[in-house]
Design goal:
The protein has helices at about 5-10, 15-20, 30, 50-65, 80-85, 90-110, 125-135, 160-170, 175-185, 200-210, 225-245, 250, 255-265, 275-285, 290-300, 315-320, 325-330, 350-355, 415-425, 450-460, 520-530, 540-545, and strands at about 35-40, 70-75, 115-120, 140, 150-155, 155, 380-385, 385-395, 405-410, 430-435, 465-470, 480-485, 505, 510-515. It is α/β, with parallel strands linked by helices and about 550 residues long. The strands form three sheets. An eight-stranded mixed beta sheet has the order 7-8-12-11-10-9-13-14. It has a four-stranded parallel beta sheet with strand order 2-1-3-4, sandwiched between helices. Helix 7 links the parallel strand 3 (about 115-120) and strand 4. The longest helix is centred in the middle third of the chain and has 20 residues, at about 225-245. The chain is globular, with a radius of gyration of 23 Å. The two termini are about 35 Å apart.
């Protein structure tokens, strides 16, 4: 069989290429089969990636057993959690594009026949999926799996973000320093992606729903032996895809993206999946408006059938044991397009017929479509005079008593000022915090307002205040929040016209986000507003500030 890699491995003029591979120990037999890249984001900075060296070894076993040659290369991977609350978070979303560019460059430069994408965390997985769609090579994503839950804290198993909540509690005198220290030591007891349903695990689940990961693989715990068996199976499957000529765009389609969006709505995935699925859709020619419409319809039509931290006390291991994404898809039935092709070479429906699970379904975590947690979905798109483009929220993580919230604005021009105000007790019950100039261009980088929400929670204000922003939120956030407000302040969106004291209303039932100002007043204020000093950046932040699309369009670098 003639492979893509044959272009540079079988022609006489490229004999040097064979010699270079042989310098690393490859044989003629290796070089005559398919050349499979393993894009591995392993590093010692991110717990979600810490096990990926071992995972890669098992992927290689599968590739070799199927007759392929495995060639592994490194990919950057930064940790959202460690970047929160400081300038480092400005770099996180831009790394998604760097990862896509990196994988594209390596795959094209070396004429790889197929690729296995090993990653786990927030921007790494979507960056890899963007690369898969762009390259249109046979590709499979394999995540490293979630970590175990920590010691009990505040009525549930703790996770790494519990420590941030505890900062607010410590500052308010609600816990002791000894309790705080004990939590820090035991909140994250193993490697793996964070144990809550944040963006990392959401995107792994979305990839499985999309068909680009093996069915049932996304939620296997990081420390489970089943994770290694899934890795070996992935290695065998990628060779089969190459030999069968099944490329990524036969799997990543509008229908499979719709499946991913519906699974995110049904399970209350991260609000960040809106921008990531839109960016992936862009790679196959599906525009952001279409993708947002898919989410809009899903939020109306698809019931909420699963609840996981931060929407309940159950964590990712509980979700896995309850049946995970395959069980959710079975519950949704006709709401999922089961005819979509997957990386197994079979359809989603055929995969689900063969799928078996060693644990019983836990109805505390996954309910039936006939008896859902709620009839509407766990994610929602809001619009109004404050968000003429979009505003994104997560109703399933917001107490029902706060699905309608109205109060005076407290305006902050950056995240740091807002966090300082919360810690110093300057935010009062009933306030609507407005954090602006944190969008893709204005940040630049569209930081997550993770700490602000955690600090409000820790100070007992999570159910008494609201927060809106042109930045983003972490998948672990709860309280009352609306992010991704578009147009952002840096592009003269109405959020830039808000002053302290203006009344803002969040109406989730009616999907509205409004400020009590006339169109004329908004226009006048925008025309006469004093802009904050322009931020000058070089390197990737400078590039991103110039070329980033809006949050409503996926926030990717536009070329």
């Amino acid at each position: 069989m003639k492979y893509r890699s044959s272009e540079i491995l079988s022609e006489l003029m490229f004999t040097e290429n064979r010699a270079l591979y042989k310098s690393m120990g490859f044989s003629n037999r290796d070089l005559d089969g398919p050349l499979i890249g393993i894009a591995n984001s392993w590093n010692e900075l991110v717990p979600g990636h810490y096990n990926l060296r071992n995972v890669a070894d098992f992927v290689k076993k599968g590739i070799l057993r199927a007759g392929g040659a495995a060639v592994e290369f490194g990919v950057i991977g930064a940790c959202d959690a460690q970047a929160c609350g400081h300038i480092g978070m400005k770099y996180i979303l831009p790394t998604r594009d760097l990862i896509a560019f990196d994988i594209e460059s390596m795959a094209e430069a070396h004429r790889l026949d197929g690729i296995v994408l090993l990653g786990s965390c927030d921007k790494i997985v979507p960056g890899m999926l963007m690369a898969a769609a762009r390259l249109d090579l046979p590709a499979i994503l394999l995540v490293g799996g979630p970590m175990a839950g920590g010691i009990e804290f505040d009525g549930r198993k703790s996770d790494s973000t519990s420590v941030s909540e505890a900062v607010g509690m410590l500052s308010a005198g609600l816990i002791s320093k000894e309790e705080f220290s004990r939590l820090e030591d035991n909140a994250a007891p193993s490697c793996g992606s964070c144990s809550y349903y944040g963006t990392a695990n959401s995107m792994g689940c979305a990839a499985e729903a999309m068909g680009l990961s093996l069915t049932g693989s996304s939620l296997i715990p990081a420390t489970s032996s089943a994770r290694m068996r899934a890795a070996e199976a992935t290695g065998r499957a990628i060779v089969d895809l190459v030999n069968g000529g099944v490329t990524a765009r036969r799997i990543i389609t509008r229908s499979s993206l719709e499946n991913a969006a519906r699974i995110m709505v049904a399970t209350g995935g991260s609000t960040n999946t809106f921008i990531h699925l839109s960016a992936i859709a862009n790679e196959i020619g599906v525009d952001a408006k279409t993708m947002m419409g898919i989410y809009d319809r899903a939020s109306e039509a698809v019931p909420s059938v699963a609840r996981v931290n931060p929407s309940s006390e159950f964590d990712m291991e509980d979700f896995y044991r309850a049946g995970g994404i395959p069980q959710v898809m079975k519950e949704l039935g006709e709401d999922i397009d089961l005819s979509c092709l997957t990386v197994s070479g079979e359809t989603l429906g055929e995969n689900l017929e063969k799928w078996s699970h060693p644990f019983e379904v836990d109805r505390r975590v996954i309910r039936s479509k006939e008896d859902p947690f709620s009839r509407s979905g766990g994610l929602a798109v809001l619009r109004g005079n404050l968000a003429p483009g979009t505003g994104i929220t997560k109703p399933i993580a917001i107490d029902p008593s706060m699905h309608y919230f109205s109060g005076p604005a407290r305006v902050f021009e950056c995240e740091e000022d807002a966090n300082e105000a919360i810690l110093s007790g300057k935010i009062a019950e009933g306030d609507v915090m407005v954090i602006r100039n944190e969008g893709p261009k204005g940040g630049p980088g569209m930081r997550e307002m993770y700490f602000a929400m955690k600090l409000l929670y820790g100070r007992g204000l999570a159910k008494k205040t609201a927060l809106i922003t042109d930045g983003r939120f972490s998948g672990t956030n709860n309280g009352c929040f609306v992010g991704h407000i578009s147009p952002e302040a840096a592009e003269d969106g109405p959020i830039a016209a808000v002053n302290d004291g203006d009344r803002i209303t969040i109406d989730i039932k009616n999907k509205r986000l409004d400020v009590d100002l006339s169109p004329e007043e908004i226009t006048y204020r925008l025309k006469h507003r004093v802009r904050p000093p322009k931020k000058e950046y070089k390197g990737i932040l400078g590039l991103y500030a110039k070329l980033a699309a809006s949050a409503a369009e996926g926030g990717m670098i536009r070329i």
